[in-house]
Structure formats: structure tokens, C-alpha cells
Amino acid sequence: MSIDITSVHAVEILDSRGRPTLAVTVKVADGQSFRAGVPSGASTGSGEAVELRDDDPARFGGKGTLVAVGNVNGPINDRVTNQVFADLAELDRALVDLDGTPNKSRLGANAIVGVSMAAARAFAAVAGVPLWRYLTPAGVTPVLPVPHFNVINGGMHAPNNLDFQEFMLAPIGAPSYAEAVRAGAEVYAALKARLHAAGYATGLGDEGGFAPDISRPEDVLETLVGAITDAGYTPGHDGIAIALDPASSEFYRDGAYHVADQSLSSSDMVAYYADLVGRFPIWSIEDGLAEGDWDGWADLTKRLGETIQIVGDDIFVTNPAIITDAINRGVANAALIKVNQIGSVTETLAAMSVCRDAGYAAMVSHRSGETEDAFIADLAVGSGCGQLKSGAPARGERVAKYNRLLEISDSEPSMTYAKN
Fold first, then answer.
1. Residue 235 burial by CB count (10 A; 0-12/13-18/19+): exposed, middle or buried?
2. 27, 104, 338, 389: which is the annotated catalytic residue?
3. Taking 80 as the threshold, does the pLDDT of residue 148 lie above it?
4. Whole-angstrom Cα distance, residue 36 to residue 248?
5. What is the pLDDT of residues 152-206, one digit of tens each?
6. Phi, psi values for residue 310, rounded to 5°
7. Considering 186, 207, 286, 397, which one is annotated as catalytic?
8. pLDDT at residue 20 tops 80
9. Residue 62, Cβ neighbours under 10 Å: how many?
10. Alpha carbon distance 281, 143 (integer Å)
11. Does residue 218 have an active-site annotation?
């Protein structure tokens, strides 16, 4: 069903790190308004759509978003108001064409994606269906995703000496989504107690995970296995597995990977991961190698791709063309999906379609700078991808996504929980 947009309006707000971002409101002819909060990343791929910042050192250290706000309230508003759009794809095409650059650098991906997300809500409301249902492609079965709780933060997300950026709990063996959330919260509490008993600080990183001053990934993994056991769960695929996002581009320099005072070649890094997978219940590794290390990625995929999930984030940047190239080159077997990374909802769905057609998995993801907006929870359900990461089971902007899934689970009791 079509919508007739009467106005779009953006305002500068703060994200969960205290940095500026946008909130966009789309109004339609029947008087309804639909809002979206735009996420913002810290660990970013070089090929991401451009997040437009003001570069005015007198405001927010140059991180202000008034230019992007002005682009929504000016040229975007002028282009889309008083016009009927048949579907979201038509609206998104109009926005991309208005920008006219290959990376959304004129209007800003943060401006465009905010309008796209708010408009998706408008289309869903006009169609009389929940957002997740509107986002469900033809032939796809919606499922409740396995939550991936980032419970220990390092890298760009925390002020500690831990090079790996994210250590996640994945309650793969839970009988339902609600039980998966309970498991994540209980292990999170047990982890806090274990860290405290060991004398570590239990302050939080950007995504709500603890940020102890531990440098060796092995020590973190041992601590996680202990916390899972402390909480009464079984480490592994039958209970709670572990997923990693090392964000390796952040510790790759001078042709080597620098981890816990080691300098490792690409092949050394692959061997290191193989050793960790053999010793700990790891089921997924995201961004295990730097975004430019394509040969290393192929080696990693060949070595571990039949055993675990190998997820591309910085290397793929939710770009359908790059994902297609990676598939042809035998790189990874899954893609991380971030709506603001490509810059529109339609392009995000296209990236997920590429994955689905090739038999690649997909994991919907938040960003380190978040708002209370739970759009990605509906996207994870509607796309049927079966996986969502939204940080720790703590902090309002993180649990908003997990809580939205609890609401969907309650309203749709027959919906399947996607055990992996």
C-alpha cells in the first residue's frame, strides 16, 4: 500500500556514547507520525556509506550532525513531501538518486537511513501489519533470532588492554527466545560476580559488556566458560556457545596482527583461531582478519568454514556487490548486517537476499552508538536470518532490542526460535 508523505523532519539527539546522531520523523497524509533513531558506529569499515559529520571543532569536537539534519529538513523534505510512494523501494531509490554519490556522501547515510527507517514504519502502519511482517520478503519465514550478548568489551569499545573487541554469549541450545534472554542475563550476572571475585573492575564498555583489564583472549574465554557453568548452563552448542568479534582491522598494522604482545602473520592468525576453536566452545568468528586481507580470509574460511560460522563485517559493509564478490571468492560463510552501514532499508534487504540465495548466513547487528530505537529487532525477525547482536543484556539502548523481541514472542506464540 502506498503512503503520501506530508513532511519529514530531523533533530539532532545524543546516542548512547553521548555523541550526536539524528532522530527522523515522517508524517503522512492521515496525520500519523513515525520516528526512527539513527545508530552510529565506532569500529567501521572503510567502505561504509558516509556518516555525515559537521567537522566544526566548536561543537561536539567536530562530531555534530547539523549538516545531516539540514539535509533531511531541506532537500530531502522538498523531494519526498506531497508525493505518493508505492512502496519503500521507490522511496529509497528517490533518496539514493537525490544524493547522487556512490557512498551517500552528499546528503549523508545517517540522513538517508533515518528517513528510510521511519518510512518503513509508515508503510507497515498503512498496511496494517507489524514492522517485522512488512519487512518479511516473499517466501521467507519469520523467526525469533538467537541473541548474541556482548558481555566482555575490548578494542574500540573499552579503555582496556584487550585487543579483541567483543566476546559474546549465544544461547543456541535454549528452548525458546524468552529462555535465551534469561540465560544471557543469568550468565551476565554470574560473570560479574566471577570478575569481581578475581579482583577485576566491572565497569562497562560502550555496548554494556564488562571491560576488565585482561589482555589475553584465552583468559577471557576461560572466564566465560566458568561463568556459564556458574550460572548452571552447559558451555557449547547444546547450551550457551561463544561468538567472537575480534575486529581485527583495529589491531592490524605494518603487515601483522598485534594481539596480546604477539605479532602474528595472517597464517599465524588463522592458526591461532583454529587453536581457540579447538579449546573453547566458539561457534562464530566475525572479522577475524583485516578488511583488506582477502587471501587470509579465504584461508580462514577454508580452514574453519566447515566447523564454525565465519562472519564478514568491515570487509562486506552490508554491500550486496561486495558480498557477491566474496561469495564468488570463497570468503566467509556469513555476513553481518547493519542498516546504517549501507544507508537504506531496501539496500539492507538486498544484501540479505544475496546471502540467502547463496546459502550464506546473516546476523543483524546494532552499532556501538545506539538509540532506544528497536528497528533491528523487527528486521531480524522479518528477514528470518535467525541471529541478532545488540550488546549486553544491560543498558537501555541495548535491551530495547531484546525486549522488543520478547514482545513479538509474546504476541506470536507459534513463531519459531531459530536454534542454530
1. buried
2. 338
3. yes
4. 31
5. 998 776 678 899 999 999 999 999 999 999 999 999 999 999 999 999 988 888 8
6. -115, 110
7. 207
8. yes
9. 11
10. 24
11. no
